């Protein structure tokens, strides 16, 4: 195939899903408006059903772009009560964190009804949230520093979920 065999398309239309994604992103209180805005943008690209935010971080519409308008975003004072309710609704709570028994994301099988729980950039996931999780996955790091940026890691995890469930 030669380069002339490809046509440049600036933005392809979204891929239609057979069913809506039953994937929720729940963010512990983050420190950076930029990280939260990047997470919202990626969540929107992945057709996440909603984003749960704690704390008073602001979403920058220039970074989040259409995600800030298209994606349901709910704000809560505390994450544990919300996670307990979602667990009762049948969602599996999966933390994205490095812990003693976390599983390499490359060897983890998501379920359709998943809440991906994202920890704070510096302190990680608080203990009261960790105790509620069904699973914890981590993304292997091969250099320094010891972990990826929270927005980058969230993007990788969302992409892996979409890879496992490409049609919704």
Automatic annotation (TrEMBL):
<dbReference type="InterPro" id="IPR044748">
    <property type="entry name" value="Trm3/TARBP1_C"/>
</dbReference>
<feature type="domain" description="tRNA/rRNA methyltransferase SpoU type">
    <location>
        <begin position="23"/>
        <end position="159"/>
    </location>
</feature>
<dbReference type="GO" id="GO:0030488">
    <property type="term" value="P:tRNA methylation"/>
</dbReference>
<keyword id="KW-0489">Methyltransferase</keyword>
<dbReference type="GO" id="GO:0141100">
    <property type="term" value="F:tRNA (guanine(18)-2'-O)-methyltransferase activity"/>
</dbReference>
<dbReference type="InterPro" id="IPR001537">
    <property type="entry name" value="SpoU_MeTrfase"/>
</dbReference>
<protein>
    <submittedName>
        <fullName>tRNA (Guanosine(18)-2'-O)-methyltransferase</fullName>
        <ecNumber>2.1.1.34</ecNumber>
    </submittedName>
</protein>
<keyword id="KW-0808">Transferase</keyword>
<dbReference type="Pfam" id="PF00588">
    <property type="entry name" value="SpoU_methylase"/>
</dbReference>
<dbReference type="InterPro" id="IPR029028">
    <property type="entry name" value="Alpha/beta_knot_MTases"/>
</dbReference>
<dbReference type="InterPro" id="IPR029026">
    <property type="entry name" value="tRNA_m1G_MTases_N"/>
</dbReference>
<dbReference type="GO" id="GO:0003723">
    <property type="term" value="F:RNA binding"/>
</dbReference>
<dbReference type="InterPro" id="IPR045330">
    <property type="entry name" value="TRM3/TARBP1"/>
</dbReference>
């Amino acid at each position: 195939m030669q380069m002339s065999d490809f046509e440049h398309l600036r933005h392809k239309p979204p891929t239609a899903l057979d069913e809506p994604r039953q994937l929720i992103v729940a963010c512990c209180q983050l420190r950076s408006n930029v990280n939260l805005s990047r997470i919202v943008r990626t969540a929107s690209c992945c057709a996440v059903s909603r984003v749960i935010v704690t704390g008073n971080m602001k979403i920058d519409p220039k970074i989040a772009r259409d995600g800030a308008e298209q994606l349901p975003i709910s704000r809560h004072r505390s994450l544990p009560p919300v996670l307990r309710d979602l667990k009762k609704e049948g969602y599996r709570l999966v933390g994205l964190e490095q812990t003693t028994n976390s599983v390499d994301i490359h060897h983890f099988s998501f379920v359709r009804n998943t809440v991906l729980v994202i920890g704070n950039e510096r302190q990680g996931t608080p203990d009261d949230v960790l105790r509620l999780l069904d699973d914890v996955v981590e993304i292997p790091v091969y250099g320094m520093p010891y972990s990826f940026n929270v927005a980058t890691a969230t993007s990788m995890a969302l992409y892996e979920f979409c890879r496992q469930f490409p049609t919704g």
